[in-house]
Amino acid sequence: MKFEKLVGERFKERPSDCVIDSHALMIRGGYMKYVGNGIYSSLLPLKRITRKIEQIIREEMDGIDGQEVQFPVVMPASLWQESGRYESIGSELVRFNDRNKNPLVLGMTHEEAAVQLVRDYAQSYSKYPFMVYQIQTKFRDEARPRGGLIRVREFTMKDAYSFHTSQSDLGDYYDRCHHAYERIFTRVGIPEVISVASDSGMMGGNISHEFMLMTSIGEDSIVICRGCGYKANMEAADSVIYNERDTVSNKITLVHTPNIHTIEEVCGFFNITKEKSCKAVAYQRNSDDSYIVVLIRGDLDVNETKLTNHLGFDIHAATIVDECELAAGYIGPYLLNNNYSVLYDKSLENTNNLVCGGNVIEYHYTGLDIQRDIGNVMYHDFVKIQDGGICPCCGKESISISRGIEVGNIFQLGTKYTKSMNMTYIDKEGTIQYPIMGCYGIGIGRLAASVCEVHHDDFGPIWPMAIAPWQVHICAVRSDDNAVKECANNLYEELLSSGIEVIYDDRAVSAGVMFSDADLLGVPLRIIVSPRNLKESCCEIVSRDKTILIKVALDLTNEKILELV
Amino acid sequence: MKFEKLVGERFKERPSDCVIDSHALMIRGGYMKYVGNGIYSSLLPLKRITRKIEQIIREEMDGIDGQEVQFPVVMPASLWQESGRYESIGSELVRFNDRNKNPLVLGMTHEEAAVQLVRDYAQSYSKYPFMVYQIQTKFRDEARPRGGLIRVREFTMKDAYSFHTSQSDLGDYYDRCHHAYERIFTRVGIPEVISVASDSGMMGGNISHEFMLMTSIGEDSIVICRGCGYKANMEAADSVIYNERDTVSNKITLVHTPNIHTIEEVCGFFNITKEKSCKAVAYQRNSDDSYIVVLIRGDLDVNETKLTNHLGFDIHAATIVDECELAAGYIGPYLLNNNYSVLYDKSLENTNNLVCGGNVIEYHYTGLDIQRDIGNVMYHDFVKIQDGGICPCCGKESISISRGIEVGNIFQLGTKYTKSMNMTYIDKEGTIQYPIMGCYGIGIGRLAASVCEVHHDDFGPIWPMAIAPWQVHICAVRSDDNAVKECANNLYEELLSSGIEVIYDDRAVSAGVMFSDADLLGVPLRIIVSPRNLKESCCEIVSRDKTILIKVALDLTNEKILELV
């Protein structure tokens, strides 16, 4: 391919709307173009990269007995009504009507389609286990697309669905898929990806893992234990909190606390530590604005994902209006109007002598003993785990929090979809059973962007050979020089016929322009043909990552390149 | 791949809702599954076929300097508002709003996206010509999906867009693409595809061709001249009609014609030929139900596609209600209430002494002379060309009409999109110009189904080697026989390591079941390992199309297969 024919703009200035490097470089390098909020077109270099990533994934999926299929992008709503997700998923699921007013949805995940595809086929235990996967466009109406290809609304994804007759068979397959994922991330050039325990969210099921590329620009928070190596998404990590009750529970007493608002002020006023306070955080349900009050120990914060998963519906921070009778800033559990859903975090278990809001403006209670004053309540885990917290695995105070990009995920779904969609099989004993499912996703574009995040410098991406848009970039510096032109042409033809993927720049531009464009394209090996080199009958081979910089005799160049590729 | 692991149902009965063979066989053979009206999932055999077709197309598009890109499935409505098609296209374009009430569309074609992708890049003549293409899912809300993959709502398409600085450059590229298409159809196994002149419809532009597979189940009507070889879609073929005026124009006279309804009855009553009658056909505009009256010679019919293209909006056959003052069955051009749009077909040019409706129930006029009685009117071509009609190319009465499936199309678009979307470049003289576009489409699924239509028998598809889901199908008949099992296993491993794509059936089923399943899978070469064959230390190689049926010594099988593949 001639560089001058490559469609796409390349430019030097970092676009002002690009926060992360991969986004900026992929816009600057003519890899992709903005079409609308969270929607991009891909140009040839990115298309070549993603096709190579897709092929690696395909090989690994075939290697674990996957069968490539294709589900529809547009599906009848009835399929999602069967599983119950038509109602339970929020506005990220696009719903619309066709010309005959039949409701349709845009696929954002395909558990329903997978069950529909195989439920007539797999009615006997002898058909199991099996896995089907596809590589396909999806649309998820994200509230806040960002980071270029890291979080978009339209994206290409490999999604796989496995079906099993026992939990142990699913467990075995889940492990095989985990290994296949490790191979995929290694092959595309980011072996540093780690897997962490994750929350299953809207997918249902219980055991799940996310594959995380640890980077400061990641949008997920990962809990890692410096002691035992425990790793989990913050949303999925159980908090461990120890309390000790005072020997005597004081009487509960309403105290006037004028101008005392924050937890710090409350603790200062009463001369107590935050651990001895009970904080109330108010939310509202998105659908009807009803109030939910979460009570938690004063030194801790609520992890809203944990809370949402517990509730099973979407919420937002409460706006406290006069009519609602909540005393903003002074909410507490004692004598709280029972019009509200009240939830207790497990950090309040085994406590007494707490200070809490008095449910009257400028009043607090002291001496709260939940067990005595409220009665038996259920405690749940809503705590946002903090750096230095206690590891739920080894029990030591060795938790650190880092940020990561989720580049893949695997879920054990159980029978959530097979039961709701009535997919059954007859087991060996002739009994009707529900198959057990697993599902396994990788976002192709996000993976490409993640590789770019890890492998780039200020001048452009440094693509690993396995997914590079081309393998070799020939720069004919001073192509107006006939000897240069001829030599570069010959090299180009020779490499092509050796099966090498070559991009060839013979434009009449300065070496500076040529090299900065080549840097943006990030091809791993560069051959420089120039009048100076030709005087020595050689050319330069330079690797994009600068680890290779050699002069090679012209007649040995092809051979050397084959060796390096 | 082991046959027993292949996900998908295979069965003998032709599904009652399948009208055409390819549809029936691809459902019966576990290639695809119905999900909703005009929406299917593909299973592994079809996915393998379409991936091979896509690769052939990709090679041919790369061969004519195409650059693979990817446009979004979901696009902002604003892009389609720029071109004007957001308003002009009917309900086949899916429109919906996102969570923030921004209007979006589902891509059914990507001229707008192509212009948006390249218009910032291609601002100088030196960037031209270039072509970008994609292979991607599209959704078109067809009113009547039918024929399995022949007409669906969701489909995968290769669509290409080329940009040029002169009509002659577009013409040259158009020809190159025409040749590439011929190579594609030949490579996938249907070299009999012909190209015919076509109508550009909603695409705009002027010159266009459709690639047609001639078959009785086709939904397009193709005009072919038995004399000069002229070929065109019926919608695009100009009609040629000769009239001769009588020397004397009689006076126009209203005549009572009780119980005279049809053209035949009218001609019988007045003792004239149909050529001497003027028929009125009434339509209504879809958007507002306003009436359009088309006048045409009594022996001819209206081609509604020609009419729609002339009007630029969608219509349906009129329902004549009392309030509209049209005299159903007696409509004529003379003294017709001028509330209606009236159009004259060119078959009425140079006529007189016509009989036409009297615009009063049970009355007709005789002696109509349009020029004298109506005045100067514009004549347009709305005629449905008939078998035996006059060829617009050679002028002989040698038109025949055949049916075909459109498997591809190419259009010269002119500046329709570049002008409306303000894409410009500076030419050599420094003048601002609009580039000229071409576009080129092939439906992947329809092409697969078309190959199946041509290549099948009662028992299943007969896939050409180039696109077959596998190259070789091993049938181990009586796999409970250890010798059979071992021999078949060895052959399987040997062929796999020779790089052959093998599907291997070692199920404990009868030879009948095994062979009928193999027929449905349509793999070109079959190896039969059976106890009987093993007695002679050989196996049978049978081709699916029955042209090959040989016994081969076991140790030569691998070699023979490599030769045949």
TrEMBL record, chains A, B:
Keywords: Aminoacyl-tRNA synthetase, ATP-binding, Cytoplasm, Ligase, Nucleotide-binding, Protein biosynthesis. Residues 48-464 form the Aminoacyl-transfer RNA synthetases class-II family profile domain. It comes from the Bacteria. GO terms for biological process: prolyl-tRNA aminoacylation. It catalyses: tRNA(Pro) + L-proline + ATP = L-prolyl-tRNA(Pro) + AMP + diphosphate. One of its GO terms (molecular function) is ATP binding. The keyword Magnesium does not apply. It holds the Pfam family tRNA_edit. Its main location: cytoplasm. Its EC number is 6.1.1.15. It is an enzyme of class 6 (ligase). It is found in: Cytoplasm. GO terms for cellular component: cytosol. InterPro entries: aa-tRNA-synt_IIb, aa-tRNA-synth_II, aa-tRNA-synth_II/BPL/LPL, Anticodon-bd, Anticodon-bd_dom_sf, Pro-tRNA-ligase_IIa, Pro-tRNA-synth_IIa_bac-type, Pro-tRNA_synthetase. Homodimer. PANTHER family: MITOCHONDRIAL RIBOSOME PROTEIN L39/PROLYL-TRNA LIGASE FAMILY MEMBER, PROLINE--TRNA LIGASE. This is Proline--tRNA ligase. It comes from [Clostridium] fimetarium. The lineage of its organism: Bacteria, Bacillati, Bacillota, Clostridia, Lachnospirales.
